[in-house]
Specification:
It is a single chain. By secondary structure, this protein is α/β, with parallel strands linked by helices. It is built from 14 helices and 24 strands. It has helices at about 25-35, 50-60, 85-90, 100-105, 125-135, 165-175, 190-200, 235-245, 260-270, 310-315, 335-340, 370-385, 395-400, 405-410, and strands at about 5-10, 15-20, 40-45, 65-70, 70-75, 85, 110-115, 140, 145-150, 155-160, 180-185, 205-210, 215-220, 225-230, 250-255, 275, 280-285, 295, 320-325, 345-350, 355-360, 365-370, 390, 415-419. Helix 1 packs parallel to helix 7 and helix 6 (about 165-175) packs parallel to helix 7 (about 190-200). Bound molecules: uridine-diphosphate-2(N-acetylglucosaminyl) butyric acid.
Length: about 425
């Protein structure tokens, strides 16, 4: 973990144009899915972030060749070693759970330490194991690691016990080369799950129902290499829009797929943010008074949990009492304790629900980024705050946002990265 911090001087209006990068949560499963072919895969628009570098380390450990030049990653999984992926590699990245499906399919065995990741609450793996068992995997009793084996993965019609994003992705990656047909019901269908399906289809997989909660997958014998552009990151897009809105700036956010954010636009309108949607961009304009709203997270296409904290930060500037209901994770209101140091007086009802009264004058303070999205929320708060905010633990922000400081500075923010 590095010791860099951000020093943010607040009160600057953001102005200009900014381009969204490739989606982290699409790139992670797509990199793992590249192990399903012996042929070379080229991925473009891959975000240059710490989580992707960790993913590459794991590929190298398995003997897979990769190269990253700019935002283009080449992967050549001619051979994939059957090795235990230990705690050291896995602990940095919850998404390493995404190797379960591809390795099981490729090597018929996978041994993986229990994954780490952002401290956003309890993050079990029962749904992953259940889905893989439905497809024919045997879960072996190993104390400290996840150990799965199979003779032959076989297609099946089953329902996910929870619409888990990475759980669905593991099921998809196991089903594409399984024997026969699979139907996954209550599949997660976030834009990154859709991108994984589109990527696999470009390799010759047969997945139907992409973008819905029911996926039909016809197993094929082999997948081929491909060249694929990772979809743009709707979570980064939302973050940049919120950063612009809170400073009452005028910013064009480019390379956005507006369809990925339908409910987000609706909530922004409810709050009173002024913006215009284009085909692949959004123009954020200065807003008059903002109004308090109720914000509840749920699976796609409902409001994304990953934008709850950044959005709630905007609500600190809205008139009235906003109600926040985080339904997915029990550790995703922690940022409110940090915003308290900046002058907010939230009413935290329980680990899932809180009330925010606004508008609150935010003041610069010394605060910590407690996870990736909480970190983004605090940066947004710091942009609107009076004076200087010192943000520690920015390691979490670097995990998922490509040079957020430089991007925001390019449209007028003042963020210094210091040791
Ligand atoms: N759940 C279970 N059992 C499981 C798995 C999940 O009960 O075996 C529950 C979780 O506790 C949670 C719900 O299911 O209440 C949804 O969790 P999910 O499994 O969908 O989360 P995830 O797949 O671990 C992905 C994203 C997260 C994002 C969530 C929710 C990736 C790599 N990660 O995590 O992204 O918050 O879906 O949309 O796609 C982030 O980018 O900052 C991030 C944390």
């Amino acid at each position: 973990m590095h010791t860099h911090r951000f020093l943010v001087t607040g009160g600057k209006k953001l102005e200009g144009q900014i381009k969204v990068g490739g989606s982290k949560n699409a790139a992670l499963p797509i990199i793992a899915a590249s192990l399903l072919t012996e042929e070379p895969v080229t991925l473009t628009n891959v975000p240059d972030i710490a989580d992707i570098a960790t993913m590459e380390h794991i590929l190298h450990f398995l003997g897979v060749e990769t190269s990253m030049e700019g935002n283009t990653m080449k992967i050549n999984a001619k051979a994939v070693a059957n090795l235990e992926i230990g705690h050291e590699l896995v602990s940095k990245l919850r998404a390493s759970i995404l190797f379960l499906g591809p390795l099981l399919s490729r090597n018929k065995e996978v041994r993986l330490a229990y994954p780490g990741g952002c401290p956003i609450g309890k993050r079990p793996v029962d749904v992953h194991l259940m889905a893989l068992q439905e497809l024919g995997a045997e879960v072996l009793e190993d104390q400290d690691i996840l150990h799965l084996e199979c003779k032959q993965l076989k297609g099946k019609d089953f329902i996910m016990s929870e619409a888990s994003v990475t759980g669905t992705e593991n099921a998809i990656m196991s089903a594409v080369l399984a024997k026969g047909e699979t139907i996954i019901r209550l599949a997660a269908c976030e834009p990154h799950v859709q991108d994984l399906c589109n990527f696999l289809n470009s390799m010759g997989a047969k997945i139907k129902g992409v973008g819905t909660h029911t996926l039909q997958i016809k197993g094929v014998k082999k997948l081929k290499g491909t060249e694929y552009r990772i979809t743009s990151d709707y979570l980064e897009a939302g973050t940049l829009v919120l950063a612009s809105a809170i400073t009452k700036g005028s910013v064009d956010v480019l390379d956005v797929n507006p369809n990925h954010l339908d409910i987000f636009w609706q909530k922004l309108r409810e709050v009173g943010v002024v913006f215009e949607l284009g085909k692949d961009m959004v123009r954020v304009l200065p807003s008059p008074e903002l109004k308090a709203i109720r914000l509840q997270t749920a699976i796609f296409p409902s409001f994304p949990t990953d934008l709850q904290a950044p959005f709630a930060t905007l609500l600190t500037q809205a008139k009235g009492i906003s109600f926040i209901f985080e339904t997915l994770f029990d550790g995703r209101l922690q940022y409110l304790y940090e915003l308290q140091k900046m002058g907010l007086e939230p009413r935290i009802i329980n680990p899932y629900q809180a009330e925010i009264t606004g508008p609150t004058k935010l003041m610069g303070a010394s605060v910590s980024s407690c996870d990736l999205r909480a970190g983004a929320a605090i940066v947004i708060a710091a942009l609107a705050a009076e004076g200087e905010t010192e943000i520690s633990n920015i390691y979490y922000i670097d995990r998922g946002y490509e040079r957020l400081d430089e991007k925001l500075n390019s449209i007028g923010a003042s963020i210094k990265r210091v040791k």
